[in-house]
Amino acid sequence: MTYCLGIRVKKGLVAIADTRITSGNETTSAKKISIHKQGKNNIFLMTSGLRSVRDKAVTYFEEVLENESIHFDKMYKAVNAFGEQLRRVAEEDKASLAASGLSFNLFTIVGGQLESDKDHKLYLLYPEGNWIEIGEATPFTIIGNSGYGKPILNRTLTYDSPLNFAIKCGFLSFDSTRVSANDVGYPIDMVIYHKDTGFMHETRFDEKDTGHLASMWGSKLRDVIHEIPDDWIDDLVTRVEKQGEDNRVRQIQVQQQQQHH
């Protein structure tokens, strides 16, 4: 399984991808995020699905970008181009994969800003090559193992959140997934796009780099749970204890009546 997260806030984009690859009992590492140059700008891709489909589609897409006669001035055009290459791979490999018992499966997150885009963009692309744009109402999307890391983003992240805050939320979302799923883990790759400068930067974190933050998060979470008032629980426990005592008394009375008969 995979954990790939794309975030779009007012000041930029954040992309986070784990690198763990699990096949049967074997665990290896491989990049799931890549940066591709288009003119003076960059776009990033993150994928979740069959590795062979990913590698072939990305290779075909890179050939398109290297063609000097083809130029994309808007993000949706680049996303369409990747979708076309994904459908090309489907035409070539889908039948043989199905014959081997494998489904054609590749989800992709694409982000960036090209010269004619008024704003930075984030897209989720499906295995069929169609896509949706990630808007302001829910400013993130996850592919792969999404269940464990989504709640913290739903509770904390908005389009107006500062970029630094989005990075922290993204990391904690990954960490929540990592501690709950053994097929997601370090190292993690992170790409940050800053709208004001137009600069896209990629970096990698090992557990030794951010492990102390995960420990701090766990400790703070326990502290907050202790700070939640207990009065509603006390009332609940009192009612349960009373009901239990009443039930015990009734059982004793029934037993005594049965003994007299």
Automatic annotation (TrEMBL):
One of its GO terms (cellular component) is proteasome core complex. One of its GO terms (molecular function) is peptidase activity. Coiled coil: none annotated. GO terms for biological process: proteolysis involved in protein catabolic process. Pfam families: Proteasome (PF00227). It comes from the Bacteria. Gene3D superfamilies: Glutamine Phosphoribosylpyrophosphate, subunit 1, domain 1. The keyword Protease applies. Keywords: Hydrolase, Protease, Proteasome. InterPro entries: Ntn_hydrolases_N, Proteasome_sua/b, UCP009120_prtse. The keyword Cell membrane does not apply. This is Putative proteasome-type protease. It comes from Neolewinella xylanilytica. The lineage of its organism: Bacteria, Pseudomonadati, Bacteroidota, Saprospiria, Saprospirales.
